[in-house]
Description:
Radius of gyration: 20 Å
Structural class: mainly alpha
Amino acid sequence: MTFLVGVTLLLVLQLAGEVTVRLLSWPIPGPVLGMILLFLLLLLRKRVPGSLATASSGLLTHLSLLFVPAGVGVMVHGDRLMAEWLPVVAVLLVTTLLTMLVTAGVMVLATRYLVPGYREQEQSDD
């Protein structure tokens, strides 16, 4: 029963994100706002509820099944992908590079401001 409660919580937060995005015409996906709401909920509670831990563990054990629809989409639209392979590859390369740069920047900033004593160590190395 705890799995069902956890999945219900995840779906309710996703629904809340979707409804909010549609009502306010925000330019972000509803599930992303739902994840932000989940993050805020977890910050407020300062712990992960048991039902949510059970549901997330259960979903993660079957994560590979969630890639089946994407694989089917690639197979169904294979002709279109072959016809437009250059823009697809270009977008994949650019977004991968951009993601790596932003991740590295966030890591540097987080280390600089969140790790105790890091600034003093960095200044003593100079």
